[in-house]
Amino acid sequence: MLLSDLFQETYFSLNANKSRSVLTILGIVIGIGSVITMISVGQGATSSIQTNIQSLGTNLLVVTPGSQQGPGMVVRGGFGTATTLTLEDSEAIESGISDIETVAPATSSRKQITTTKGTNTNTSVYGVTGAYQSVKNVEIELGSFISDQHVANISKVVVLGPTTRDDLFGDNVDAVGQKIRIEGLEFTVIGITVSKGGTGFGSADDLMYIPISTAQKYVTGSDGVSSINVQVTREDLMTQVQAEITNLLLVRHKISDATQADFSIVNQADVLGALSSVTGTLTLLLGAIAGISLLVGGIGIMNMMLTTVTERTREIGLRKSLGAKNRDISWQFLAESVALTFIGGVIGVALGWLAAYAVEQFSGTATVVTLSSVVLAFGVSAAIGIVFGYYPARRAAKLNPIDALRYE
Known about the structure:
Layout: H1 3-16, H2 18-54, E1 60-65, H3 87-96, E2 100-115, E3 120-128, H4 132-135, E4 140-143, H5 148-153, E5 157-160, H6 162-169, E6 179-182, E7 185-193, E8 207-211, H7 212-219, E9 227-232, H8 238-252, E10 263-267, H9 268-311, H10 313-321, H11 326-363, H12 371-397, H13 401-406
Parallel strand pairs: 3-8, 5-7
Antiparallel strand pairs: 1-9, 1-10, 2-3, 2-6, 2-9, 4-7, 5-8, 6-7
């Protein structure tokens, strides 16, 4: 049988039973559409998490004090209250460890902020150095960021996050030059940061930055730092640098047993890998649930093809008596099965794409439709056509021509 004849026979056969063909295709359309939509939701969540974490900085190690404790030791202060890390530790890391791009110590405290207009807000106050801007990818919308000169002069200047600015001065107001009060002390606003949105680790917009020297003297009253942010030169060196920092701080803090360290180090790559693994599992689960629809659609294909073989038994007998071979009969029914799933796959991909777009527009949930998910959906639909069409095609090919011609 020529390929053109095969296409022609397939077209006429499917066109002769339009209603049945459409209903059968509908099962595949729903299955493929569901797979595309569910995978796009999972991949959108993965992409959103990766973007949010990378917006906090790249190749980042964050050293925090007092979050580990050894056996038999008393409980140290909670996160953000321990003072086991100092600026001297930060300077020792910067001078003693190679393969480091920048080191940015920071201290934080939550305070009530007021303005002369009577507005107020409760937000996080971060004491930082000039290096913090590059390490944490902080972009400035208006004015400027904290400089090393501000740190050296213990200046009473502040950079506001956009949410804090909106709470204190109104939406999108140019607050540069305005005054605010922290702990009764007056600070001058010198900059507004660009919005980063939610990160899953607290808002990067609802905060403010002041010089770390000012924060230690007037806000926290302590020489300790809340975190030391270390930017490594290359991602593949992060584990090595993490180990070197651990050894350096253990020596400085006179701790011989690493399990009793009074600090901990969070590796950004490890966090990103763990979260990506979770979202990857979620994507697989969503895809598997949607795949059940495809299985049901495939069973529908097989049911329709078996019915078609029964209805066309005399036709099969006539064609065999005229010289058609078993493989010609088999190819004909297999082609009809694959054509049904192919058409269903094309429509299903378009429907899934539209559904993913609608989910993002109306629910705000990020969705990503990738080429790999489209290729996977097409591959699965073609496989379903072959798998569920094989048995009916084989059954048709094995019919005895004499028995088939006698079939009523």
